[in-house]
């Protein structure tokens, strides 16, 4: 269990992580945070950087409150400090740099993106009021349909098409017994779907929360051999 000083550091760092998301230096801060979490593992660093970006997107889209996101990252930072107490020095340095950057950026900037999306750049709240012009995803089923149409035009047999579609769908299937390692290899869309569907089956009350999949990604990164169903079942909040 962390002592009071490290717990306070984790809380401050969690807030600083979210605060950094509203600064012009976000990408640099994101990469430094990911490096601290990675412990020198380049793959782990890539995963954490992706999770940080997804948290920022969720806040900007209004799917999660900044304070809630800060609390989630505080929990992860507490786990980090339990396992790597030497990371405290790097976190303290990072908090100082984020605070210095934020103090130089105190005016709220209006950023126009599509339908006048607004981001509060003061580093306290990140709100996105864009409710129109949702980005349309042309992956998944639409991509399959497009490929089938091309294949039909080329005269490929219907039987081969059915086999190809079945194999494509099966390759992306995630079950509760899928290892965390294999779960993390799946696309973001497939992981989102798995957390929601398996979460419902397991009675996980937080499965529908936008942060649930990010939490599962993080915990799976810590325990790659664990069945993903066990991790999803713990998403209760």
| Sheet with the most strands, sense and barrel status | none
Beta-strand percent range? under 5%
**Low-pLDDT stretches:** 106-139, 150-171
Order of helices and strands: HHHHHHHHHHH
Q: Quick one: overall form?
A: globular
What number of domains? 2
Output mean pLDDT: 76
Output the radius of gyration.
20 Å
Helix content class: 55-70%
Number of separate helices: 11
- Could you give the distance between the termini? 22 Å
Tell how many strands the DSSP assignment holds: 0
Classification by helices and strands: mainly alpha
Keywords:
10k-s Protein, Hypothetical Protein A, Chain A; 0% strand; globular
Note down, in words, how this protein is organized.
The chain has two domains: 4-103, no CATH class; 141-232, 10k-s Protein, Hypothetical Protein A, Chain A (Orthogonal Bundle). It has eleven helices and no strands. Residues 106-139 and 150-171 have low confidence and may be disordered. The protein is globular, with a radius of gyration of 20 Å. The chain has helices at residues 4-20, 26-38, 42-60, 66-83, 87-103, 141-153, 158-171, 180-185, 188-202, 212-222, 228-232. With 237 residues, it is an all-alpha fold.
What topology emerges from the helices and strands here?
Blueprint: H1 4-20, H2 26-38, H3 42-60, H4 66-83, H5 87-103, H6 141-153, H7 158-171, H8 180-185, H9 188-202, H10 212-222, H11 228-232
Helix pairs in contact: 1-4, 1-5, 2-3, 2-5, 3-10
């Amino acid at each position: 269990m962390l002592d009071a000083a490290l717990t306070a550091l984790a809380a401050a760092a969690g807030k600083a992580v979210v605060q950094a998301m509203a600064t012009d230096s976000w990408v640099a801060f994101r990469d430094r945070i990911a490096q601290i979490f990675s412990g020198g593992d380049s793959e782990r660093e890539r995963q954490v950087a992706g999770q940080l970006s997804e948290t920022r997107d969720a806040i900007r889209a209004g799917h999660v409150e900044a304070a809630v996101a800060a609390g989630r990252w505080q929990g992860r930072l507490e786990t980090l400090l339990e396992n790597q107490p030497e990371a405290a020095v790097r976190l303290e340095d990072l908090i100082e740099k984020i605070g210095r950057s934020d103090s130089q950026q105190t005016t709220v900037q209006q950023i126009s993106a599509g339908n006048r999306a607004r981001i509060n750049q003061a580093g306290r709240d990140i709100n996105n009021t864009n409710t129109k012009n949702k980005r349309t995803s042309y992956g998944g089923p639409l991509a399959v349909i497009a490929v089938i149409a091309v294949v039909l035009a080329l005269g490929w047999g219907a039987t081969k098409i059915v086999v190809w579609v079945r194999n494509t769908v099966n390759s992306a299937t995630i079950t509760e017994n899928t290892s965390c390692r294999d779960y993390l290899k799946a696309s973001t869309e497939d992981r989102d779907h798995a957390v929601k569907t398996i979460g419902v089956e397991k009675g996980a009350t937080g499965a529908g929360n936008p942060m649930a999949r990010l939490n599962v990604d993080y915990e799976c990164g810590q325990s790659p051999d664990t069945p993903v169903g066990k991790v999803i079942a713990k998403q209760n909040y």
